[in-house]
Amino acid sequence: MLFGRVQCVLATLVVVALGTALAGRPNILLVVIDDVGAERFRFYDSNINRSPSINKLAKESLRIDGYFAQPLCGPSRAAMLSGRYASETGVTGNGHVDEPNFDEDECTLGSTFAAGGYDTLIAGKVHVSTKFAYNMTESCGFNGVHIWAREGPRYNDPVMLTNYGKGNLPVKKVLRAVKKGKRATPRSLTYPGAYAPFVNRDVIKAFMTFHARSEDPKPFFVYYPMIVCHGAGSNTTDADSLPVGETVPNTEEEVFNRRLELADGIIGDMLAHLDKLGLTDNTLVVVTSDNGSPRQYNAIVGGVEMSGAKKQPFQTAGTRVPMLMRLPGVLKPKRVIQNAMSVVDVMPTLMGAAEITSFAPGKKRGTGKNYWRVLKGKKEPAESFVFVFSENRSPAVVARSNRFIIGSDGVIHEELEWYHDVITSPAKVCQSRVRVKAVNKLMQHTRALGEPFILPGETEPVDYSTCNSLMCGRDAHVYCVE
């Protein structure tokens, strides 16, 4: 009898301890806006001011000044899900439904947080993982699913795939199922008269409500790759990307700005819902984007006139995107991280915040860096580099810091101020061990893709069979070492 009581007490203590440990870790809301560069936001010194909710969030958040995504949707989302560069996944372009290079063991983000004790949800646009859409929980680890899986329109009267509720349900009944945590077999639903970005917002709010009411100690992890601010797709008009009944602005750029306003309103609404539920203080909110703005849209940043550069790896406007992180009492508001950080660093950094120490079993290990200690206050390194990749464009791979842009084509630019760079001497590589190390990694990434690599300042590709690493000579030039 005494032994039974002891067992009961020990079991209770284990449950309490588990609940306390889980409760001490933050919920995570990761929002990825589609197709918006850093130059569209006032807190990056832009003349454009169309995002009051995100502006307010910026005042409450830590901001990364040099956060770089990939120059295209597919590679960025593959990097976000895997924590691996394009040279490792093979994803350099938009494969959409049948991306052949993105494997199940690289769809790691949801699986790692689910294995780490989180209840996971994906809502929005999945892109490279579309081929796993009907098996998203088993393949990618997202317990809850509500996605546009490239079936039917992406905005109005959308077709969405979800595992909430059973049967052919209208939006209201799907939301009711989310609030009750009722999941079933994934299937596609058509929502006549609905606007997909608003439905995804409401699904996320319902998911938060479920957790606020639940006695389950699990924290939540929401991955929200937004549909906005991307256009409505081929064979569509600008009006198709806006809610039915809205007046369509006169110019394509103003339509884009209107989509940004819609994204901003959605984010503001979710943040207000966290406040209402009393979850703000224990929720890490991350707002970023997947690539730079399209090339036809203009801005002035710090007095520099510039245009978007989506798809362009060598141009800052193609890869520099917003990155805000808010966790009250942990991350210092308005603090600015100056060093370069990449999309591959997001997962390991969020794992640091969640105290998750290993990737999910059966998944390839991410190769990004965990910056959580730096974000919390540890001194930044003097200089850091990240790598961006292109599809059918030269250079194939770029190493970049906040100051230097080094291409696999041998050309080096120095950024005098954001969006204003000039060609500079290749000798500057040899002025820093960090830059020499970055050029070595640049060659390794380029070789892995099967692309030619040219030494800084040279014109002919190296012979990989006799070039295993790089070093600086006394003349401050970079040379191959067998």
Write the layout of secondary structure elements.
Blueprint: H1 2-23, E1 27-33, H2 52-59, E2 62-68, H3 73-82, H4 86-89, H5 109-115, E3 119-125, H6 136-140, E4 144-148, E5 159-164, H7 171-180, E6 183-190, H8 196-213, E7 220-225, H9 252-277, E8 283-289, E9 298-301, E10 304-307, H10 316-319, E11 323-326, E12 336-342, H11 346-354, H12 372-376, E13 386-389, E14 397-400, E15 404-407, E16 412-417, E17 420-423, H13 433-448, E18 469-472, E19 478-481
Parallel strand pairs: 1-7, 1-8, 2-12, 3-4, 3-7
Antiparallel strand pairs: 2-11, 4-5, 5-6, 8-11, 9-10, 13-14, 14-15, 15-16, 16-17, 18-19
Helix pairs in contact: 2-9, 7-8, 8-9
Describe the structure.
This protein is an alpha/beta fold and about 475 residues long. The protein is about 30% helix and about 20% strand. The chain has helices at about 1-25, 50-60, 75-80, 85-90, 110-115, 135-140, 170-180, 195-215, 250-275, 315-320, 345-355, 370-375, 435-450, and strands at about 25-35, 60-70, 120-125, 145-150, 160-165, 185-190, 220-225, 285-290, 300, 305, 325, 335-340, 385-390, 395-400, 405, 410-415, 420-425, 470, 480. Strands 6-5-4-3-7-1-8-11-2-12 form a 10-stranded mixed β-sheet, sandwiched between helices. The longest helix has 26 residues, at about 250-275. Mean pLDDT is about 95; it is low at about 5-20.
Fill in the keyword field for this structure.
about 475 residues; alpha/beta; ten-stranded mixed β-sheet; about 30% helix; globular
